[in-house]
Design goal:
The chain is an alpha/beta fold. It is 33% helix and 16% strand. Strand 7, helix 6 and strand 8 form a beta-alpha-beta unit. Helix 2 packs across helix 3, helix 10 crosses helix 17 and helix 13 crosses helix 15. It is elongated, with a radius of gyration of 24 Å. The protein starts with 10 loop residues before the first strand and ends with a helix.
Length: 472
């Protein structure tokens, strides 16, 4: 337990690493005597004009190391008209921490980020816009600047970060990070603020980020203390200092963290994987239920995106999505692909003769050593792979479309799409999970639209897929 560790356990080692050749930026590392495996990258505030790296930076190391948490403070370069400078310094720190995880006693799947005020904005940028491998596993935001609209935010943070782009509405929108939150992809967050903050308005900043997270169904907690104004950090003068540390400690302690050697399972798909119609699908959709059934030896991530097609000439191709890039960067050991439902729509199936090639393209990007012999292609026999296939890939057939909602066509699914899936599976030696047949008599397990599984349906999907993955 984080909060139960002895207060005597503190810092075992402190050192500095330059992030630039000229030493303009650096990170200061504090490694605990009794590591829990958790790490936090700290981002001080200062309005992007100075670094408030005492009570919003270095002074945190005692409490964090007492909890067994490795701590890394980033003394980043100020933008001075170039926002890539602070972003690059934090991204480099994230990479160093994960690359050095084994040496420093860190679980590479348990690296968080903690930002204050403008540093909270920078932390939210990394959490929403950085590549998957540089994004944190969890986010801690203290009275964060979130909006880059100076009319509702901290004026100088906005101007210092965006520079001349402060006049560009597209850049203001992009870096107002409540707009960048992605369902399933943005890491869980905790936000801590004061109600009487007069410098960074809570409602248009921290509350806006919380609302975006909750609307996306992502995990997010928010603590708003009655008073304290702005900039208290870990300062003992903050009236709610002890309560704040207790709130943060319990939140950190109750986070479930994948084991470093967990078998990674990527769930790729459309709205059925995404969890359309399932409130808080991040916790109650089929991939989340699959995680519970597989247990702590596995790490299941949801890469579903509603409305997406396998077809690259469909109206919303899956392979154009950030989720697709993330799924590949996740480097999964197991992949469950459930696409094809939206491909059956008339505007998409007019390109149906491209479905097989697009499916094979996806498979080969996931597994470059996947091969099928010419003989197997002609005869439709199951391929014999020369080398072990990594990741292991399961192709799920679409569940039946009990209604033709959104012009989804079950006849096209059953008579054209599924035969192509089976043909590809035979050629490349892959396993097919026939959800179409297994759900044939289960109209009670879908929502009123006749397309999306309800709570009973996603539970059945999770059970079927878990059994296949575990070879039952």
């Amino acid at each position: 337990m984080l909060v139960a560790m002895t207060m005597q356990a503190q810092t075992a080692r402190e050192f500095k690493i330059d992030l630039t050749d000229n030493g303009d930026s650096h990170m200061v590392a504090f490694l605990p005597e009794k590591p829990s495996g958790k790490a936090i990258v700290g981002i001080p505030g200062g309005g992007y004009s100075v670094l408030s790296n005492s009570h919003e930076g270095l002074q945190w190391h005692n409490w964090l190391n007492q909890q067994g948490i490795a701590y890394f403070v980033v003394n980043y370069r100020l933008p001075n008209g170039d926002r890539t400078r602070p972003i690059g310094d934090v991204e480099k720190t994230m990479r160093i921490v994960r690359d050095s995880a084994q040496v420093w006693g860190i679980n590479p799947h348990d690296v968080g980020i903690m930002g204050f005020s403008a540093g909270g904005h920078l932390a939210s940028v990394i959490s929403t816009l950085s590549p998957f491998e540089l994004r944190p596993d969890f986010t801690i935001l203290f009275y964060p600047v979130i909006s880059m609209d100076e009319k509702v935010s901290h004026v100088y943070s906005c101007r210092n970060f965006l520079g001349e782009d402060q006049k560009n509405p597209e850049m203001v929108k992009k870096y107002s990070t409540q707009n960048a939150v992605k369902r399933h992809l943005t890491p869980p967050a905790i936000i801590l603020m004061s109600n009487d903050d007069r410098l960074v308005p809570p409602v248009t900043n921290g509350v806006a980020y919380y609302s975006a997270m909750r609307n996306a169904g992502n995990e997010c907690s928010m603590f708003i203390y009655p008073t304290g104004d702005h900039g208290w950090g870990v300062g003992p003068w903050f009236k709610y200092h002890d309560q704040m540390l207790d709130d943060l400690g319990k939140w950190l302690n109750n986070r479930k963290t994948p084991k470093p050697d967990a078998i990674k399972v990527a769930c790729i798909g459309n709205s059925i994987t995404d969890g359309h119609g399932i409130d808080m699908a991040t916790q109650h959709g089929y991939p989340s239920l699959l995680q519970r059934k597989l247990g702590e030896g596995y790490w299941v991530k949801n890469f579903g995106v509603s409305g997406r097609t396998m077809l690259n000439n469909g109206d919303h191709p899956y392979m154009d999505e950030m989720a697709w890039a993330d799924a590949q960067a996740f480097q999964p050991d197991v992949v469950v692909i459930k696409l094809g439902t939206n491909d059956s729509k008339p505007q998409n199936w007019q390109h149906g003769d491209e479905f097989k090639q697009d499916l094979v393209t996806m498979l080969k990007k996931l597994c470059p050593n996947l091969q099928a012999s010419p003989k197997n292609k002609k005869k439709g026999k199951k391929a014999k792979q020369v080398a072990p296939v990594t990741p292991q890939i399961f192709l799920c057939t679409p569940i039946p479309a009990f209604k033709s909602s959104w012009d989804i066509n079950d006849s096209v699914i059953a008579n054209q799409i599924i035969p192509i899936q089976r043909e590809v599976a035979e050629e490349y030696g892959l396993k097919v999970i026939d959800l179409h047949t297994l759900f044939a008599d289960d109209s009670d397990k879908v929502q009123p639209d006749g397309i999306h599984p309800n709570d009973k349906g996603v539970a059945k999907m999770a059970e079927i897929i878990a059994n296949e993955i575990q070879g039952k």
